[in-house]
Amino acid sequence: MKIVKGLLLGTAASLVAVAGAQAADLPVKAKPVEYVKVCSLYGAGFFYIPGTDTCIKIGGAVRVQAEFNAGAGGIPVGFGNATEAGQGRQTRADTNDVNQRTRIYFSVDARQQTEYGTLRTYFRFGVQQTSPADPVTGATFWDRAFIQFAGFTVGKTISFFDGVTFADFNYNNPRTLGDTGPNGITLWAYTAQLGNGISATLSAEDPTARGKSVTNTQIAGTWGLGALTTDAGLAGQSATNNGFLYPDVIGALRVDQAWGSAQLQAALHDASGAYYGTTTTGAQQFGHPGNAYGYAVGGALVLNAPGFGATSNVNSQPNVDQFKVQAVYAKGAAAYTTNGIGAYQLYGGGQSVGLAWLTDGVYGSGTSVELTRTWSVTGGFQHLWTPNWRTSVYGGYLDVNYDSVAQGLIAPGGAFTGGPVGGTGFASGSGTINPNFHVWQAGTRTQWNPVSQLDVGVDLLYSKLQLADSGAVVGLPANGARPAGTYTLGDQDVWSVLFRVQRNFWP
């Protein structure tokens, strides 16, 4: 019996020893790490980066849209630059009747409290595939990347000239507003907070984002069909424009309060031309026009109407009824009044066509730069029927005016010396070509948010191009499916429809 007990005790001791050895071989349990904490300083969606006092929010979106009689993200056919989506030829084998876009956004917003105030860093980029411009594999883009600290904003964001944005009222891209929201603009700005929601900003902004086209009318072919082109061996910007001498200088005085916001803004823009000469070799021998200075002034107003309609917490959308309006006058700075600087080209029925060109200024041999005068106004109202349904109506007007001196440079003797590129030139019953024109647009958008962060909507837009020289005759070369021939200039219009579904991932 004692032998049996001894064996049992020995076996138990061995098992305990083995178990102890196995336990010693196991890794030591790690200490609990600091879990991610919610950061409530800057609103919903922020959390602390572990081990730091920096708060971060990660966001994004997926957008899918289909467009009828529009392209490049809501630009009506005929109202863009000389691309397939913008030429508006409206015949078989020409412009697509239907275009589509799929876009992915990704954004990061990081903020930290310092003795100088909030230090903020923000960037947003994505991938898109837009028919017919982008390859089916997609194209990358980025529209925001900026730092804000102690009143300074540096990087790529919305221009401080833009008093309002209509991105929350429509999907289409109106031509009566110089909005930098879709692409952003690189700037160096300082904003002083004056109290009671009043602020003043001084900003130096990249002029290339606003465009610049100062045309030497003596270079044959520069004033022609589609986008303004170059000729006689001069390439790119040097053919017509002088290189930018300074950034655009923006000043803005703004107030933001519960009732809405208001802003007065002004801009100074370089509108200098290049050389008078028409060849690279002899250009500098002929001199150049003196520097020209364009400018723009404007005002913007946003009115909130709480209690008039329903309220909503839909992401990135007003949660009350709103009215918005912005008006701008410019001389030699056309892109502050419209996103459509360049050429309008819209064919109608039969042998009719609407052609219009927009440039900051024109000059000829030995002349100064004649600056183009433009002005535009855009307004809209949005009503919330229920927290999940909203409808907006919006519209605008753009006026483009070349003075008599500029008209004489564009068409001396009543006809373009170079004529449209490859064409036979204009003939006018009055003997004088009048390139002035205006555009007006009116639209409405209805959006449904079946659940939070999901937008489903449709936007209907009517666009009208009206020419001062309707009835003039123009000889045009073959253009896509359009044969070469004689066309009559006339007013043109187009209806555009854009349907969009967007899922947002930022709170």
Instruction: Determine Rg (CA atoms, Å).
Output: 30 Å
Give the topology string: H per helix, E per strand: HEEEEHEEEEEEEEEEEEEEEEEHEEEEEE
Biggest sheet features? 16 strands, antiparallel, barrel
Low-confidence stretches: 15-24, 81-93, 220-239, 415-431
Mean of all residue-level pLDDT scores = 80
The CATH architecture name reads Beta Barrel
**Assembly context of the chains:** single chain
Describe the structure.
The structure is a single chain. By secondary structure, the protein is mainly β. 7% of the residues lie in helices and 46% in strands. A 16-stranded antiparallel β-barrel has the order 2-5-6-7-8-9-10-12-13-14-15-20-21-23-24-27. A hairpin with a 2-residue loop joins strand 20 (373-386) and strand 21 (389-401). The radius of gyration is 30 Å and the shape is globular. The chain starts with a helix and ends with a strand.
Write the layout of secondary structure elements.
Blueprint: H1 2-25, E1 47-48, E2 55-68, E3 70-71, E4 75-76, H2 84-87, E5 98-114, E6 117-130, E7 139-149, E8 152-157, E9 185-195, E10 198-205, E11 214-216, E12 248-257, E13 260-270, E14 293-305, E15 321-331, E16 342-347, E17 352-358, E18 361-363, E19 370-371, E20 373-386, E21 389-401, H3 404-410, E22 425-427, E23 437-448, E24 454-467, E25 473-476, E26 485-489, E27 492-504
Parallel strand pairs: 11-18, 17-26
Antiparallel strand pairs: 1-2, 2-5, 2-27, 3-4, 5-6, 6-7, 7-8, 8-9, 9-10, 10-12, 12-13, 13-14, 14-15, 15-20, 16-17, 18-19, 20-21, 21-23, 22-25, 23-24, 24-27, 25-26
